[in-house]
Amino acid sequence: MKNLVLCAVLLLSGCARSLPKLVVSEGYGVCIHFRGEPKDLDLIAEAGFKFIRMDLSWSGIERKKGVYDFERSGYDTLTSACLKRGIRVLYILDYSNRLYEPENSVRTDEGRKAFAAFAEAAARHYAKKGIVWEVWNEPNISQFWRPQPDVENYCKLAEAAAAAVRKGDPGARVVAPATSTIPFPWLEECFKRGLLNWIDAVSVHPYRPTRPETVMDDYAKLRALIQKYAPREKKIPILSGEWGYSNINWDKTQLTDEQQAQYLVRELLVNLYQGVPVSIWYDWKNDGTDPKEREHNFGTVENDLKPKTAYTAAKVLNHTLAGYSVAERLDTGNRNDWVLKMKKGRNKALVFWTTGEPHDATLPWKSGTGRLLDMLGVEKSVSWKTGELKLSLSQSPQYSLIR
Fold first, then answer.
1. In terms of domains, do 335 and 212 share one?
2. How much is the pTM?
């Protein structure tokens, strides 16, 4: 077991300075709400996820001023358990600490200094382990920054924390501001105050009641905003740090397990097509058992870890197209159709679906043979000899692996 951990550390140490490549599964992950080494981690690894996102709670680690306990808090075990399974960790440096601040925010010089010291200690403790560090979670809403969101104080905290993380681990990647949705005015205020000078990527949570493909216009607008304020020649990617679909959607409509699975696969693929190197699905498992509670129905598995359709669909995607990148989006003549040409060395594949009604489409393609898999992995052999490849598109993504 020690050798496995050592190998994983050596592999991840090489990527300590980098974000994942734009290939299937390398940047795909799930949000979790546990520490230690439960069997959840085996299921996450088996599904092919390569990231977890988890709170690194300030108040849980620093219970006495200046004393940081990463072992008894369960984070050491979680970190090593992820490493030996080939899973990278995105830790959120959050929330407040009653030793320094009266509310769930950081608004004093003493609090900022203490938070920065905590961030430095964390980065040093987990140095060279490929950790991605995020400063706070959703500071643009009062649920997580009280009494109300405050751009000025958040940016002061982000500047101090980013510098502290790099002092603890010069090779670390720092991302922010992990906003709820993509609040353009709030983000622009952060950018005006210099946030893009201190971070390596802009993390947002693109939640929406509409289908995943609608995110593209928002990404285009956000990229333009980043370009406007970023330091010259600094490339700052967008991360989808938290985004998922509950079976009870935001507009209160019901999503079946099959629809949730469709959205998961399409969300991850659209993010890859859009050049987003990290895509974290919310949530790993249902946080409860109430079928009428939205927060209890975001998971890829049930609360008792029984796989949902979304889990199977994620596993099929991650294993079928592991290592494939998006070469281009092919045009069928129907703007609702999505046909992504994928490549991995000399290997080619197509992944296709439609956001409209099910229908057939044809693409010019030299005769050949291949394997066709549906979203849940049911497979059949296919061949075509006419110079046209016929596709039967539905809302469920399918994979054609071309020989």
1. no
2. 0.93
